[in-house]
Amino acid sequence: MRSSSADRPTRTVIDATCPDSRYALDCSGWTSQAACPYPSEKGGAGMKFVINSGTNRGLVRKSNEDFQLSDPFLGLVVVCDGVGGHASGEFASQMTGTRIHRYLQDHAGQVRVLQRENSKQARIALCRLVEAAIQAASLEVFRRSEVEPAHHGMATTVEVLLLSESHAILGHVGDSRTYLLRRGKSHCLTEDHTVAAEMLRSGLWNAETAANTPYASTLTRAVGQQEYVIVDTLEVELAAGDTFLLCSDGLSNYFKSGQEFADAAKKASFEKLSEELIQLALSRGGGDNVTASVILIDQLGREEELDEPTQPDISVGIDPGQKTEILGKLSLFEFFSPRELARLMAIAVEESIPVGTMLMRQGEPGSRMLILLSGTVKIIRNEQQLGIRSRGSLIGEMAILDHSPRSASVVSQEQVHVLWLGQKELFELLRMDSQMAVKFLWALSQSMIRSLRDTSDQLAALKTDLKIPKSDLPFAT
Fold this sequence. Notes:
Blueprint: E1 2-4, E2 10-17, E3 29-31, E4 48-56, E5 66-71, E6 76-83, H1 86-106, H2 108-116, H3 120-147, E7 155-163, E8 167-173, E9 177-182, E10 185-188, H4 195-202, H5 207-212, E11 232-237, E12 243-247, H6 249-252, H7 259-267, H8 270-283, E13 290-299, H9 320-329, H10 338-347, E14 349-353, E15 358-360, E16 368-374, E17 377-381, E18 384-389, E19 394-395, E20 409-412, E21 416-422, H11 423-432, H12 434-460, H13 463-466
Antiparallel strand pairs: 1-5, 2-3, 2-4, 4-13, 5-6, 6-7, 7-8, 8-11, 9-10, 9-12, 12-13, 14-21, 15-20, 16-19, 16-21, 17-18, 17-20
């Protein structure tokens, strides 16, 4: 475990084979700086990742109220930015980081079982554990601030990253941030919990108002403000080469755009990346404490090949970046941010389907829509083939609005890989996130307008045979 509030970078290299399935992920790539004393249950190549962290008090502050911690055995990274004054802020951030770590250590057996189990239920359980760890910290910080006058009002932001075999689980409170660098582009995966951010999201302020309001940076959520805090959690499917950045606002406030993380990664070696980012903030004023923890997913775990022959897995090669790209190009989700697409991916059901399978049957009611990730399917109505749909197609989206019978059947023409999105799960997600709901409803209305116009144009093309003036056609524009 590494923790630091000092001014020099720390580095943890996680690239050795972990010998213990009880104390590491099944894909088991662990630190060369710590020993794991037990043999692994499964063979196969290990997961490899590297953590590079640094923190600096900046050029203005007299102390460092940031705190960062990494535990390679748990696959855990935490960054906190304390508020409440010199002694209180530092105390709150350290207490929060260590309490989160202790909570997950106390539940290490459960954590490691869930990390090995690549299922939706396991990922939900890991999200709940991260949330519970942050809640435990919030309760402890709040109670200490209530009984110790010197620390009254102390609180902290927090960023938590917990790795499993296939996903990263994120926990977020406050205005520290987590970024993902993938395929040369960086994306912010968190939303700031500040007055300015909330007002901008609600449309009540514009950027100029936010920049000129004295209390704009006041936190609307922080660990320790109350006994309970609302925690944002997110599941992110991992791809080899993914690089995460957990940072305090002492760094992110100096980013002219999120892409500067990607630009810094191009200039500096990974070993120097956290230092490069900190120097960027210092070169632009260094008005706050600066902390950067960078995590590189160097290699994903994979099991040894089985002796028995199996059908080829067509999901191989469809990495998370490609899936997200396919989703983002669909008209219904074209306005979603990378964070929102990740939330959408978390509720989708991924499935590999053999050739000749009936995915949808004409006349049967449906409540799911299908996104085709690879392969082709036939669209059949009344035993007549209407067409073929391929990668990137969205099929059955009207089922999201009602449970009316399917207008056609869908049959796999070859082995295909698909995502299913259910009405219940999607509506629950949209209920919890009003911004996603507005974007989805706007995109849906635009899609329906396009469909109505297409229908009108098709009817207009038959006007000669039908002997009907175009002005009398439905949906005429």
